[in-house]
Amino acid sequence: MGNNKTKVAIGVSGGVDSSVTAALLKREGFELCGLSMQIYDEGIKIDTAGKNACYGPNKENDLASARAICDTLQIPFHVIDLRQEFTENVIEYFRYEYLAGRTPNPCIVCNRKLKFGFLLDKALESGIGFDRFATGHYARIVEKNGRYLLKKPVDTSKDQTYFLYSLSQHQLSRTLFPLGEYTKNEVREIARSLDLHTSERPESQDFISGGDYTPFFNKEDIRGGDIVDKEGKVLGRHRGIIYYTIGQRKGLGIAAPNPLYVSYIDVKNNRIIVSDQSDIMSKEMTVKDINLISVDTLDDPVKTDVKIRVQHRAAPAVVSGIGDGKAIVVFDEPQLAITPGQSAVFYVDDVVLGGGVIE
Prior knowledge:
It is a single chain. Helices cover 22% and strands 31% of the residues. It has 359 residues and is an alpha/beta fold. The strands form five sheets. Strands 14-17-16-15-18-19 form a six-stranded antiparallel beta barrel. Strands 4-2-1-5-8 form a five-stranded parallel β-sheet. Strand 6 and strand 7 form a beta hairpin. Helix 1 crosses helix 6 and helix 3 packs antiparallel against helix 4.
């Protein structure tokens, strides 16, 4: 895969995946260095209950783990301060979307702007030289006719292409995903065989420690209001619109003869509208901020499988470009809880065609 003249920077998180990525590339003969992002702002007071999260006081433990791995593998390690960039590009986006009644996906924005953007730019500016960048994501990149394709990994149960659809051709061209050819079990076995301390480390599951993102918001941002049915009848009270998302059923605190789901978030009137499941089934949606990977344009309608959230099983649909970076998606069958603010990713077999943000 490589030679000892190629310098590779590795995004080291302190977990097993990035650890094994580093070990595999070292075995291949690359000249390596480890990069970690310092993103946690101590001015934001966050519960430490959730240890396996991307953002929170626990990040110091992750940085220590990342440094230990690089020491074990005898590769240089650098921490890049991205606290301001993370606040401006991820936290502010996160706040804005929730206050607008939408459900954000901070991991996708963090990948595009921070991990594959500012991290590398600031590393290069500081004099850290490298030719390629590698991470422990489960995905594959294949060059075909001068175009870089993003493909699902061998271990489809760990497929992370949904979080990577917004990467540019330039970003893909300099990226390596060694774990795309391995299963998660194989990765842990490699870590055990090398006696890496991360071999049994749990995966990061949440964006924020404890799963409570109240600290990101000002007190005046969080106002209680009415929960109403589609006729406007008041059924109960909500704690603040930031705590609700389309399709939500649990935690509504209202009694009804049939299950009720959040069907609309009325920001203007600070209300949560609930209805039965039939009202949150839809066959059509508009997607904005389209990023295309395997093609240049959407001149003609394309049959694809479309994934509308991380846990959603991609469903057959036709995607048609309508200009201005937008597309209309029409599913073969109605889908549950199409949620504004979430990303829709388009697949043709195991290749990512592209994706965008649900309006």
